[in-house]
Amino acid sequence: MTMASEHPRANLQPLTLHIPEPKFRPGDAVDFAEVDVPPAGEARRPDTADKASDFIDLAYTLVRVLDDDGNAVGPWDPKLSPDVMRRMLRSMALLRAFDERMFRAQRQGKTSFYMKALGEEAVAVAAAYALDYEDMCFPSYRQQGLLIARGWSLVDMMNQIYSNTADRLGGKQLPIMYSVKEAGFFSISGNLTTQYPQAVGWAMASAAKGDTRIAATWCGEGSTAEGDFHSACTFAAVYRAPVIFNVVNNQWAISSFSGFAGAEATTFAARAVGYGIAGLRVDGNDALAVYAATEWAAERARTNQGPTLIEHFTYRAEGHSTSDDPGQYRSEGEPNAWPLGDPIKRLKDHLIAIGEWDEERHAAQDKELAEQVKAAQKEAEKNGILGHGLHQPLESLFDGVFEELPWHLKEQRQQMLDEETASGRPWDRKA
Amino acid sequence: MSDMTQAPESEATDAEPTTRMNMIQAINSAMDIMMERDPDVIVMGEDVGYFGGVFRATAGLQAKHGKTRVFDTPITECGIIGVAVGMGAYGLRPVPEIQFADYIYPALDQLVSEAARLRYRSAGEFTSPITVRSPFGGGIFGGQTHSQSPEGLFTHMSGIKTVIPSTPYDAKGLLIAAIEDNDPTLFFEPKRIYNGPFDGYWDRPSQNWSKHPAGEVPTGYYKIELGKAKIVRAGEALTILAYGTMVHVCAAVVAEARIDAEIVDLRTLVPLDIETIEASVKKTGRCMIVHEATRTSGFGAELSAIVQERCFYHLEAPIERVTGFDTPYPHSLEWAYFPGPVRIGEALKKIMKDA
Ligand SMILES: Cc1ncc(C[n+]2csc(CCOP(=O)(O)OP(=O)(O)O)c2C)c(N)n1
Ligand SMILES: [Mg+2]
């Protein structure tokens, strides 16, 4: 190719290519002073019947309720009873305890994979409290908090993580890729953002049938780059689908910072503006703000005002997964320096500030939850752990490819069973 | 594995210094060298920049060649390939990475309708000299979306070349050839053997490339012509056609069964080395085809048809196809899915029954 210097247009100013770069890399001292954190209570709360184009400003600010002193302030305060807030706090703490234990189980060789939601517990938990139990969730892999907040069995979740005899998915899916129809929790895909248009389809179906249920979906900020995200926004806008789009902006997508998804130029909530749908940008570490925004978006959806896109501004405090070492690409100082704090601590501080909670009770609860998770783990491990081999009947490998097995799969199933015989040893190598 | 002890082939000049590499290092070296030789080569993909890729295949490349030549991309496979096509139209030679082959499907339209047809539809005005690298295959408990072998989708599409190495030596030489090639090439990397060859027994200690002759890799430039298979074990009893991880599994099974098989490592699926295949099958009179991908419409079906068309009167037994089953890749039952030593061994017995 011709070099730029010998180019016939060489007298013109040369172009340069912009490559985003995060502020901090390993070893750097972290100062998040440039992260704009508006005061709690400042953002206005439009009527749920207002037109999306009337409150575009809310896509560029942060809806915050909890201030630095643990007060709930401003028009977005959902005014929850202390009892509901205590239950939300408990769900978040349970999620953290669950993550902690299962992460460790993977490290002990008990299963192949795990992903934590550390630091972003409020996003899934508070949304679950704001939605109706009957509303349908289309999560990504980091919203196990929905199941926990909906009171789903920890043992059942662990069975899936262990691919054991009681795994409702028969060992067919990667750990944490749950599917719990009963709890309104759609089958998680390993392929990013595929759930977004699916949530729209579910919501359109619900509307077409004159149902009252709405759909909600989640993806990470990195995942908004996928085409499916944009297809979903277009469909939802066109048909005013009763759906809530949640973008969990936890700043990182494996090793890539949010700038590689467009965050240098604008917010993720602002994606909504171009599609003409309602957009809110929310402090994702503020459980009350997440609750209020979800409740508001749900109200819009239920009254046929169409979709809302909520950006949850938060931070992924742990590595991407058990296969990841974040020390390779970001400063170890980031999680602690994050200006929006720890979502559990913030709700706890609020409950303490209003005299509805105290440190002793909190410590006792943490202990109790750790015991609860430990007991669940013991129970689940009675059904086996992946590290100890196969727990499913071999022939189940072919279940679910189709409703009914065609001839060629029947043949292959027989072939597999013959292989087991030929191998001279049973393949269900339980310890 | 003692059958795979042949010296690296003549493509490398004998005087070249060599060193020990695993497959990831060999792939890294190929990109590094090509970026040094050709300022138009660029590397891009999810997490390939500062971090150096989730499998570390691009480690150090950004620091050495700069951010405008090695960079992270947004998470959109369709975008990655579409942008690569555009860069190719400008005159660059992009080497995009798709993090796992399981995530290549969003890019299908740009690959199949665009990259693969640009030369044809523009009468050569525009071409797509892009090389798409992607780790593929299972055996790592990666579940349904970190294990698939989608090569058959692409061999079915006219206009794309498909390359699959089975050793560090081949990986480097083939990748350099793919990058130099002026047509779009899919370079599928068998991730199960990134760190060492695999005999098919998941419960035996894993090996690494340091003891394998093809783990000795020239440090400099060399290439292995696309479209040339390699006979990794010469033999008379039957021909085994395989590629990627399955080359090693077959070699181990054959060694254990003491069968004088001729193992042909295809290395490139499109264009196929028909001469080597034909000569081998005509010599042995038997043909077994082994791949990890699902069976129906897999590349084995094409191989079976082509061998039948060209070698029918030399065949002494029906062609055997050994493949993964026609199911998604399961998580816990992955070794029941995997076409391992037992499946291959049973097929061997069948094809050699009347020998
Ligand atoms: C289609 C597709 N491409 C790539 C991947 C690999 N991958 C898994 S998670 C991930 C990062 C996603 O980041 P983000 O959307 O920010 O979500 P987070 O992990 O932060 O929750 C990538 C690239 C995938 N699973 N699917
Ligand atoms: Mg993220």
Automatic annotation (TrEMBL), chain A:
<dbReference type="InterPro" id="IPR050771">
    <property type="entry name" value="Alpha-ketoacid_DH_E1_comp"/>
</dbReference>
<comment type="similarity">
    <text>Belongs to the BCKDHA family.</text>
</comment>
<comment type="function">
    <text>The branched-chain alpha-keto dehydrogenase complex catalyzes the overall conversion of alpha-keto acids to acyl-CoA and CO(2). It contains multiple copies of three enzymatic components: branched-chain alpha-keto acid decarboxylase (E1), lipoamide acyltransferase (E2) and lipoamide dehydrogenase (E3).</text>
</comment>
<dbReference type="GO" id="GO:0003863">
    <property type="term" value="F:branched-chain 2-oxo acid dehydrogenase activity"/>
</dbReference>
<keyword id="KW-0786">Thiamine pyrophosphate</keyword>
<feature type="region of interest" description="Disordered">
    <location>
        <begin position="412"/>
        <end position="431"/>
    </location>
</feature>
<protein>
    <recommendedName>
        <fullName>2-oxoisovalerate dehydrogenase subunit alpha</fullName>
        <ecNumber>1.2.4.4</ecNumber>
    </recommendedName>
</protein>
<dbReference type="InterPro" id="IPR029061">
    <property type="entry name" value="THDP-binding"/>
</dbReference>
<dbReference type="Pfam" id="PF00676">
    <property type="entry name" value="E1_dh"/>
</dbReference>
<dbReference type="InterPro" id="IPR001017">
    <property type="entry name" value="DH_E1"/>
</dbReference>
<dbReference type="GO" id="GO:0009083">
    <property type="term" value="P:branched-chain amino acid catabolic process"/>
</dbReference>
<dbReference type="Pfam" id="PF12573">
    <property type="entry name" value="OxoDH_E1alpha_N"/>
</dbReference>
<keyword id="KW-0560">Oxidoreductase</keyword>
<dbReference type="InterPro" id="IPR022593">
    <property type="entry name" value="Oxoisoval_DH_suAlpha_N_dom"/>
</dbReference>
<feature type="domain" description="2-oxoisovalerate dehydrogenase E1 alpha subunit N-terminal">
    <location>
        <begin position="13"/>
        <end position="51"/>
    </location>
</feature>
<feature type="domain" description="Dehydrogenase E1 component">
    <location>
        <begin position="90"/>
        <end position="385"/>
    </location>
</feature>
<feature type="region of interest" description="Disordered">
    <location>
        <begin position="318"/>
        <end position="340"/>
    </location>
</feature>
From TrEMBL, chain B:
<dbReference type="GO" id="GO:0009083">
    <property type="term" value="P:branched-chain amino acid catabolic process"/>
</dbReference>
<dbReference type="InterPro" id="IPR029061">
    <property type="entry name" value="THDP-binding"/>
</dbReference>
<dbReference type="Pfam" id="PF02779">
    <property type="entry name" value="Transket_pyr"/>
</dbReference>
<dbReference type="InterPro" id="IPR033248">
    <property type="entry name" value="Transketolase_C"/>
</dbReference>
<dbReference type="Pfam" id="PF02780">
    <property type="entry name" value="Transketolase_C"/>
</dbReference>
<dbReference type="InterPro" id="IPR009014">
    <property type="entry name" value="Transketo_C/PFOR_II"/>
</dbReference>
<dbReference type="GO" id="GO:0003863">
    <property type="term" value="F:branched-chain 2-oxo acid dehydrogenase activity"/>
</dbReference>
<dbReference type="GO" id="GO:0007584">
    <property type="term" value="P:response to nutrient"/>
</dbReference>
<feature type="domain" description="Transketolase-like pyrimidine-binding">
    <location>
        <begin position="21"/>
        <end position="196"/>
    </location>
</feature>
<keyword id="KW-0560">Oxidoreductase</keyword>
<protein>
    <recommendedName>
        <fullName>3-methyl-2-oxobutanoate dehydrogenase (2-methylpropanoyl-transferring)</fullName>
        <ecNumber>1.2.4.4</ecNumber>
    </recommendedName>
</protein>
<dbReference type="InterPro" id="IPR005475">
    <property type="entry name" value="Transketolase-like_Pyr-bd"/>
</dbReference>
